[in-house]
Structure formats: C-alpha cells, structure tokens
Task: inverse folding
C-alpha cells in the first residue's frame, strides 16, 4: 500500500509513541521534502527531532515533480497532496481540515491520526482508549469531545450483537 503523509499525523504518533503502527499498517510511508523540513524544524518536540535524525527505513522522502498551489495550505500539505496525486497513493495521511477538504475535492483517499489509531485498534494493535488518552495530553488540535465520540462509536461497533 502506497501511503503519503503530511507532518501532523507523524508528529502526533511520535508524541504518543505509536509511530511504529505506520509500518505495521502500511509497510512504507512517503513524505515530500517540505514535510521532512517541517519535522526537522526548530521548536518541534525533541522526540520528533530524534525520530528524523534516525529516520527509519520505512519512511522515505520523495519530491513531487510539481506542487499544485492550493490556497490556504502550508507548503508541506500542498506538497503531500501533490505527491499523493502524482504517485497514485492508496492513502494520504493528513489532519488539517483545509488539507482534507482539498484531498476530498481531488478524490484522494485520506485519513488522519484518529483514523490510523482506529484502524490499528480494529486490528488489535493498540488500546484505543489509552491512545486517545495520551493524545489528549499533547498539543494535538482535536476536541476531547470528538475523541470521546469516536471512542464511543468504536466501542459500540465492538459490542457483540
């Protein structure tokens, strides 16, 4: 499965020590140089910098041949969208609402941090309540109420009929 990622899902998963779910779920993840630069930027949590300084083999960097200018998107988001289109990616990992809207408009399949965690929980790879609790302790921009709703939905579909 070919997966292209923006920075936010990587940062969130690194911060909650669940980034190793990505190669288990998807084998390989590709990021454009703009996303790599965001991950290496000063001000990122130390764990993110350490991750990038010892970047694992499952995370590769590749530049799109061209980046579509998309109003309201950061360079990393626009590059990730362009790379996903160019490569015919099976999935784009992106959290930001504008980026998700742009992906939807371009008919690119996408999910974000929450979707990755839910998929991993469906496969028995992560304890979703614990992962969401850890996510709530970070600076990830999502409301506790939305996480609680997603957790309730997950639990209801796991109940035996």
Result:
């Amino acid at each position: 499965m070919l997966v292209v990622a923006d920075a936010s899902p990587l940062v969130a998963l690194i911060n909650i020590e669940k980034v190793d779910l990505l190669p288990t779920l998807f084998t390989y993840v590709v990021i454009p140089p703009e996303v790599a630069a965001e991950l290496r930027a000063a001000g990122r949590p130390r764990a993110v910098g350490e991750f990038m300084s010892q970047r694992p083999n499952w995370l590769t960097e590749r530049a799109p041949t061209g980046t579509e200018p998309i109003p309201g998107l950061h360079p990393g988001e626009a590059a990730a969208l362009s790379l996903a289109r160019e490569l015919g990616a099976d999935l784009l990992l992106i959290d930001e609402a504008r980026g998700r809207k742009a992906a939807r408009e371009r008919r690119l399949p996408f999910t974000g941090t929450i979707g990755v965690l839910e998929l991993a929980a469906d496969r028995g790879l992560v304890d979703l309540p614990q992962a969401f609790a850890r996510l709530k302790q970070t600076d990830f921009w999502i409301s506790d109420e939305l996480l609680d709703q997603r957790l309730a939905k997950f639990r209801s579909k796991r109940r035996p009929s």
The longest strand covers residues 2-5. DSSP finds nine helices and five strands in the chain. The chain has a mean pLDDT of 93.
